[in-house]
């Protein structure tokens, strides 16, 4: 009987871990560095399709003090993952890539370069 209890406990832990990490957006620091490097070189419009090597169907950028609920309503997705602290910090923007109903990647962008927006679901524009 003890053996069955341990098996059920291990199974429950695995299910909880899968539920927690499944469809969770990860922060892509390398992409963030690439974008910042292009901005420092003077680029004001960056083609995100040329920089990414993962599947996504939509992208949006969110400014300071944006909450999880605002992100979910705006993109019509379920957002789990790293928000880069934009809900409480004013010095950054968050770029979110989504595939269907879930965010897949996030990128923290420094506000020191200006404000950002997305054009044609493809280009990151620096204002």
- The strand order across the widest sheet is 1-5-4-3
Give the class from helix and strand content and strand pairing.
alpha+beta
Rg, rounded, reads: 18 Å
Biggest sheet, in brief? 4 strands, mixed
What's the tally of helices?
4
Number of domains: 1
Global morphology: elongated
In whole angstroms, how far apart are the ends? Answer: 65 Å
In total, how many beta strands? 7
Helix content bin:
25-40%
What is the N-to-C succession of helices and strands? HEHEHEHEEEE
Account of the 3D structure:
The protein is α+β, with helices and mostly antiparallel strands. It has one domain (25-126). The protein is built from 4 helices and 7 strands. A hairpin with a 3-residue loop joins β6 (116-119) and β7. The model has no long low-confidence stretch (mean pLDDT 86).
What are the main properties of this structure?
single chain, 127 residues, alpha+beta, 4-stranded mixed sheet, 3-stranded antiparallel sheet, 35% helix, 28% strand, elongated
